[in-house]
């Protein structure tokens, strides 16, 4: 059964990595984290430890940001298995934009899971918080993500240099309506 804070779509469940669950996972207690979150966390999830530590720091600094941060993308079923990760970079900024980030195990590419997960989270933000402005920053060579955000109605509005990721193309959508 999915935790009550999970976002659920037709084929997916996106439970919340709370601070407590992140702490358990990062301490190496994977079974306890899996039990608390209600999904199996394959070994590749551990490769995202840096992102997990970053999001845990954010929660500690701003506890109200927790629902906006890291969520596994898991296939629904008797034993949900994580196939990717979704996260907003934090709550909406001063202009009302929430920035999205996501990644999917390449084994699951091309099956519509990424767009289903992102759409579910945008719908969640609109329904729960009244947020209708979203942003994505995408590497110029990541055509899969550029195509995905275009399907969601995002348009390219510029570019920026990120000290970690390098050149990123910026996409936004204003006036998102639940779909």
Summarize it.
It is built from five helices and eight strands.
CATH topology: Aminopeptidase
Largest sheet: 8 strands, mixed
> CATH superfamily assignment?
Gcn5-related N-acetyltransferase (GNAT)
Distance N to C terminus: 25 Å
Structural class: alpha+beta
Radius of gyration, CA atoms, in whole angstroms: 16 Å
Can you tell me the CATH architecture?
3-Layer(aba) Sandwich
> Overall 3D geometry?
globular
The main sheet orders its strands as: 1-2-3-4-5-6-8-7
What is the number of helices?
A: 5
Percent of residues in beta strands: 25-35%
List unreliable stretches of 5+ residues.
none
Order of helical and strand elements: EEHHHEEEHEHEE
Molecular structure report:
The chain has 179 residues and is an alpha+beta fold. Helices cover 31% and strands 27% of the residues. The protein has a single domain, classed as Gcn5-related N-acetyltransferase (GNAT) (Aminopeptidase, 3-Layer(aba) Sandwich). It has an eight-stranded mixed sheet with strand order 1-2-3-4-5-6-8-7, with helices on one face. Helix 1 packs antiparallel against helix 2 (30-37) and helix 1 (19-26) runs antiparallel to helix 3. The chain starts with 6 loop residues before the first strand and ends in a 5-residue tail after the last strand.
